Amino acid sequence: MEKLFDDKVRVNLEYAHHQQDTYEFYDNSALEEFATVRNRLNHWFSKYPDGAKKQLKRDLQSNFDSAFFELFVHELFTEQGFCLTTHPIVPNSTKNPDFLAKKGELEIYLEAKVATDESNEERALKAKQNIIYDAINQINCPDYWISIREITFLSKKQAKLGRIRQSFEENISKYGALLSTEREDTYSERQEKYITYADENIKIVISLWPCSIKKSRPIGSYLGGSYMGGCEESIRSAIKAKGYRYGNLDKPYIVCINSLSYKHTRTEDVYDALFGRQRVKLFEDLNNLNQELTGSNDGIFDQSSKHSYSSVSGVFVTRVFPSNIHLANHWLVKHPFSNNEFDFNNLALSFIQVSGNSLKEVPKMTIADIMQ
């Protein structure tokens, strides 16, 4: 029988590096918490259609996040009593949605899509930063935590990683006691203790603070970032990419979104994506599932917008990883103006629908309730 992760002796007791392939890490980790994840994914994979297993395994090895979410969606609806087939033929398109879910006389098309807020340029920069993080995490630095203050790339050439590690190790060994940050230091005093490496290709600035525990890697804090707003645009873009992909469908259609944005995913982000960010919002209702319904024409579901994506019956949004199934929230929202009407009471999941002039939650089951 095809398995996602083969049975073998595993000896790797390290946590994942920044550059490490996710599938490879799960496949080789001997840590108990990741053995649990591996066993869970193997169990899900055993229920996946046999004819599609080889391709899904290849997809997990090459693009883990997207393939994992397909596996998750399959499991989530299987546990609600549906039988799923992969890539069904649809009447008005040569393209195929991810799944057709059947339960008795019920039939639903399902599409799984990962949403992020990263541009190609941001992903490329993140990959370059991850190389530096992994190099610094190899520094021998038992007495101090390292805080990354700045990484500036000055050319397109590869940074000299060995030289970077050697420079920081020498400075920490010689001057660590003098340059370590103390709690009572002022901001300017802390800046004076920064350690800088710079050459023609890169500039890196770090700071130190005392460490009294045994640790597996020295970096205690990474580069931060700032942003305005939420992740509604990435959710909206993901739905737009799938909303009319298959033309006019003959069955209800639910677009499933895994919001992996570096921004938080909140109720307001989901509602802003679906009903418009210019809608009237009361501060006390922020992140309240039950709200007064107002809309603006930048919302996916707004009837006055140019495209209301009426072939979509509803949208399922979550933020799920292999390790947080028991904690993952979800928003399953019924499209109030869909041409493919579906009774969401046929699902076990809690859902949100328009009732009069309000958005109302119909409380049922959580992801954890269904998949525990």
Describe this structure in words.
Helix 3 packs antiparallel against helix 4. By secondary structure, the chain is of the alpha+beta class. The chain has 2 domains: 212 residues, no CATH class; 101 residues, no CATH class. The chain is globular and about 75 Å long. The longest helix has 19 residues. The protein is 32% helix and 20% strand. The relative contact order is 0.11.
Give the gist of this structure:
The chain is α+β, with helices and mostly antiparallel strands and 372 residues long. The chain is built from ten helices and 13 strands. It folds into two domains: 47-117 and 231-371, no CATH class; 121-221, no CATH class.
Question: What's the structural blueprint in terms of helices and strands?
Answer:
Blueprint: H1 22-28, H2 32-46, H3 50-62, H4 64-78, E1 83-86, E2 99-103, E3 106-115, H5 120-136, E4 144-153, H6 161-179, H7 187-192, E5 195-198, E6 202-210, E7 219-221, H8 232-243, E8 253-259, H9 267-275, E9 291-292, E10 314-318, E11 330-334, E12 351-355, E13 358-362, H10 367-371
Parallel strand pairs: 3-8, 4-7, 8-10
Antiparallel strand pairs: 1-2, 2-3, 4-6, 5-6, 9-13, 10-11, 12-13
Helix pairs in contact: 3-4, 8-9
